[in-house]
Amino acid sequence: MSTQLKHKDHQEEINRFPFHLLIPNLSSPYNVGGLFRLADALGIGRLYFSGETPLPPNSKIKKTARSTEQVVSFEQVTDPLSLLKSLKKEGYKIYCLEICDQSVDLEAIPSLKKEKICLVLGEENKGVRQDFLDLADTICHIPMQGKNSSMNVVSACAIACYALINKMK
Q1: Pairing of strands 116-120, 17-24
Q2: Sheet of strand 92-97, all strands in order from the earlier edge strand to the far edge
Q3: What is d(CA 42, CA 14) in angstroms, rounded to the nearest whole number?
Q4: What gap in Å lies between CA 116 and CA 90, rounded to an integer?
Q5: What is the pLDDT of residues 72-118, one digit of tens each?
Q6: What is the mean pLDDT of residues 60-68?
Q7: Torsions phi, psi of 9, nearest 5?
Q8: Contacts of 80 (CB under 8 A, 6+ apart)
């Protein structure tokens, strides 16, 4: 019979990948909190927020982040395009999560061992900015099986991050 582990039984060591997220203009503090929790769970190195995205301290973020906003590195950036250019100079590959005529299925991305990555998420209701797409090394998408062509930003980010991080191992 299996026994569910308690938080105290879980590994204490924090392992962070050279994997960052750029999150522009997210309106929901609950989604921001969800991204903090996801980043902690998957070992994402840093979150970059831009635009009107709410930031900690915020009671709604705290509710969904479950204290992970205290341990995940994050930063507010005023010029996200300059950030991406700077990260490229540091050797980061820029991946955009967007369905477009140039995007590739996440499963088709080859091994990413020894790579440093910044994954760019799209704005709610607008998607990824064209100037970000133009700068991207890779534009990737999650194959959608239903009628809708998108999903909640935290859900999409979780799928993409999990797939990409597993290619980094």
Answers
A1: parallel
A2: 73-77, 44-50, 17-24, 116-120, 92-97, 138-141, 104-105
A3: 10
A4: 9
A5: 999 999 999 999 999 999 999 999 999 999 999 999 999 999 999 99
A6: 96
A7: -85, -10
A8: 22, 24, 48, 50, 51, 132
